[in-house]
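Predict structure. Chain length: 191.
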Amino acid sequence: AASGQTLTDARDLFSGCESLQQADLGRWDFTETADISGMFEKCTRLKEAAFGEESVHAKDASGMFLDCSNLQSVSLPGLDAGTLVNLKEMFKGCASLKEIDLTRFDTSNVADMSNMFEGCDALKELDLSGFDTSNVWDQGMEVGGRGTRLKKVTAPGVIGQDFSCVVKGRRNSRQITIDYAMEPGCEIPVW
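Prediction complete.
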């Protein structure tokens, strides 16, 4: 979508583009885009992805960066997460993702966060304090994996009754479950 044109569907837009290393979408107009699912799925050489300040009002971001194994940084300042319903596997398999700022993410309407961060082994900290999981019906949010470097997770600010997050550690290490019984926003040391 060239400058001045509105993109209405970005589903699988760059999916499988193995040569794509950087995506600067700051000038793209996503104001009427409802589906960004699978947008960069299996872009295995993608290292950076940046959206502009322009609002993205998508409902589905499932698998958006699925298996982008070299992705190191993501900037989503314009993503109006208040419209999102599906975040399933959004960052699954992003083994090189070192940090991500989701503090402005409005997840109050999200129903599915299953496996959102599974296999994000390079993450050292994950701050979910801005998350509202009161509408989450799928209890399978999974963080980390066998090669995880995760040291700390901050629990969601609003923990819904049906929400559960399993933080998986390295082989032979403990598993932590974040659920309704925990204090919202508390910091949980992982290992």
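Summary: The first strand starts at residue 22 and ends at 25.
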